[in-house]
Specification:
alpha+beta, about 15% strand
Length: about 700
């Protein structure tokens, strides 16, 4: 037994029906090729009931009852739509139920799926947990959707069977600690010093092992909640925290902690010794919990920090989910750490307005003041031989303001550094983010953290003007950008990374003054840095062929949508080409008075740059995307091997330019293609070099 797949239910709002509506977002169970399987609802309109069977092979899953965004569902019995407000009201009134859809087991050739019976549901209902985590879920719908549907307590996130399993494992930790202590006393010197006081005797040993066992329970809680869903691609249980939030799920997966599949307790526990075994350091480390705004000045220490991301993540609120399961097992081991029922919230340094009665201004003031105090303390205690390094993976969230656009997260963090006397002396992106993490799936999330290297700014730093600042930016930023591009930085990271060298110019001065004598704000400096970045990327178009210059200009205006022939004709003449020539070059399609760029899916898969008499950089870029998407890096490498070094370099540069346009226009799907091309460039280029070398060797032999 691997899992039970459930659907939440509400009573149909149609008085003439009253059926228990399954709230299902998808009936698919497996999308694996050759193993397509789905749930088929069986509707009895006389009895007004819905049961489920399992089907596989030819055919496809029926359309789910979920209607668009929000909690809008169609009744499978009568067709009535239960709107979002109704579903929420039923949940708040505690009238939301559940219906078992499928049982998943392990078979000889993979997963097996079985239609459930009433006995399975009755068995699940018989579980009676002896304990449940206490505490209310935060009333912040941005991170926590379940309270909108009446799931207000942490205990509401679990089935009785899940609670029984988790509490049993949690209770066993204390029993294991007692047994370990008894065994350790027979072989270790008598020393009752606890782990929290750096003990090395039997008590500390038993407590240390119990900490690792508790980590296993904590990991299990991530796979044992009604927020877990079924992954139809990998056919396994997704964990609760697919991202930094607890969303509402409609059809959820209840895993078997004793199975041999994903999410079982033994496997989750097994990762902990793997981590310990991989730690080869012989130098002991020490961890202390402290308020960054109240650091002690007595000892100079090097500091490397990853500061909070403005209002993007509710660290303390999200921590409560795991804290609730850690506390019962570890409050005797670390009474100071687990002295409160839930994680302390008041001192947390984020700009969360719901903690300030909805006041964004009060939240911003709390964040900005605290960040300033923290950086000020850091400046006082870092030793002169070590710089402050700040890791930042928060993507710029541009907001429209009167004078242009700005990023509140970056602006606040940078302002805190500069106001407390730091100068940015170095910057570089570091690949720290997993591409397969759920927050990056289907999005243009950052692939890297941007590391800012900071040192105290000299007290005699000069003052400069806005004009000189911009001139210096235009002199220094392009060189830094070229260096970054040579390192194959992902396009998604380029705008973030350019902030570093740009702010290095800004922060070397004690002040940058506007023409009227006012200080140039960090927000304005960020806007100027973005402008210079755009200028640099736009300047690279001058090296393109005429057809590609037309394509870039058309893309910036229309994307891959159609435009008027007359507009295209005028633009083509301005770029020293023609519409007919662009058609012949395989760049555009023209007809019925309309013109549009060809997408990579429409390109000739047999294109060869060596034989194309009118090969363009635009074509090269999009043919590489086609090969990468269809044939992977190997396919892209084979095409890259046929290109001249100049054409390949220009194609890569164009990908950066087109990504920047997509990012500005909000064209996420196209942006992913250009970003993926650059990310894969190094490995494709290495493979292309191998292909060329092999070809040359064969020619010598022949």
């Amino acid at each position: 037994m691997i899992a039970w797949l459930w659907a939440r239910t509400v009573k149909c709002p149609n008085p003439a029906c009253g059926a228990q509506m399954p709230l299902v977002s998808s009936f698919d169970l497996s999308k694996k090729k050759g193993k397509e399987t789905w749930v088929e609802p069986q509707i009895d309109r006389q009895k007004r009931t819905v049961t489920f069977t399992v089907k596989s092979g030819k055919g496809k899953a029926p359309e789910p009852p979920k209607q668009g965004r929000g909690a809008n569902f169609k009744c499978l019995v009568c067709g009535e739509i239960a709107p979002d407000a109704y579903v929420k009201s039923e949940g708040v009134a505690k009238r939301m139920g559940t219906k078992l859809m499928t049982i998943v087991t392990e078979g000889k050739n993979g997963r097996n799926y079985h239609a459930p019976t009433q006995d399975h549901e009755k068995t699940a209902a018989q579980a009676i947990p002896e304990w449940a985590p206490q505490g209310e879920l935060p009333g912040n719908a941005r991170w926590f959707s379940p309270p909108l549907f009446g799931m207000t307590e942490y205990a509401d996130l679990f089935t009785p069977r899940q609670l029984a399993a988790l509490t049993t494992f949690s209770d066993l930790v204390a029993e294991a600690r007692a047994q370990i202590l008894a065994d350790a006393q027979a072989v270790l010197p008598d020393d009752d010093t606890p782990l929290r006081e750096n003990g090395r005797g039997p008590r500390a040993y038993a407590e240390a092992v119990s900490v690792y066992l508790t980590f296993g329970v904590s990991r299990l809680s991530d796979r044992q909640s009604t927020i877990c869903s079924w992954d139809i691609g990998y056919t396994k249980i997704r964990n609760t925290f697919a991202r930094q939030a607890i969303p509402m799920t409609w059809d959820y997966a209840e895993g078997n902690p004793f199975s041999e599949s994903t999410g079982n307790f033994i496997d989750l526990l097994g990762w902990i010794p793997k981590v310990l075994e991989s730690n080869t350091s012989v130098i002991p480390g020490y961890v202390n919990q402290a308020d960054a705004t109240k650091l002690e000045n007595s000892v100079a220490i090097p500091i490397s920090t990853d500061p909070p991301y403005y209002d993007n993540i509710g660290y303390a609120d999200l921590s409560d989910y795991f804290y609730a399961w850690l506390r019962p097992s570890l409050r005797d081991v670390f009474p100071d750490v687990f002295g409160t029922m839930l994680v302390p919230k008041k001192p947390e340094l984020i700009a969360s307005s719901y903690r300030f009665n909805g006041s964004a201004n009060a939240a911003n003031e709390h964040f900005e003041t605290g960040l300033m105090q923290a950086f000020s303390k850091m400046r006082q205690i870092i030793p002169p031989e070590y710089p402050l390094t700040v890791y930042y993976a928060f993507k710029q969230q541009e907001i429209v303001v009167e004078e242009g656009t700005a990023s509140t997260g970056w602006e606040t963090m940078l302002n805190g550094l500069i106001e407390t006397g730091f100068a940015i002396v170095g910057t570089w992106p570091m690949r720290t983010e997993l591409s397969n993490r759920m927050v990056a799936s289907g999005t243009n999330a950052l692939a890297s953290s941007i590391v800012l290297v900071c040192r105290p700014r000299p007290d005699d730093a000069p003052i400069t003007s806005r004009r000189e600042f911009v001139n210096t930016l235009r002199q220094e930023l392009p060189a830094a950008l070229r260096e970054m591009l040579s390192g194959n930085i992902a396009p998604v990271d380029l705008a973030q990374a350019s902030i570093g060298p740009g702010m290095a110019v800004y922060s070397r001065y004690s002040q940058v003054l506007e023409p009227n004598g006012d200080r140039l704000a960090v927000r304005a400096a960020l806007q100027l840095i973005n402008q210079v970045l755009d200028e640099y990327l736009a300047e690279t178009e001058g090296d393109l062929d005429a057809d590609s210059r037309f394509a870039v200009a058309w893309f910036e205006q229309f994307g891959f949508k159609s435009g008027e022939f007359g507009v295209a004709d005028v633009l083509a003449r301005a770029k020293n080409t023609s519409v007919d020539g662009l058609v012949n070059a395989g760049v555009i399609a023209s007809g019925a008075g309309k013109v549009r760029l060809l997408t990579w899916e429409e390109l000739d898969p047999g294109w060869d740059p060596a034989t194309d008499k009118r090969a363009t950089v635009w074509e090269a870029t999009h043919h590489l995307i086609e090969r990468l998407n269809i044939h992977g890096e190997e396919g892209a490498a084979l095409l890259l091997a046929k290109m001249s070094p100049e054409l390949a370099a220009d194609a890569r540069q164009l990908a950066y330019r087109l990504y920047a346009i997509c990012e500005r226009k909000g064209w996420a799907d196209h942006a992913r293609d250009y970003n993926a091309l650059v990310i894969s460039w190094s490995s494709s280029q290495e493979r292309a070099a191998e292909v060329k070398q092999t070809y040359q060797q064969r020619r010598l032999i022949e």
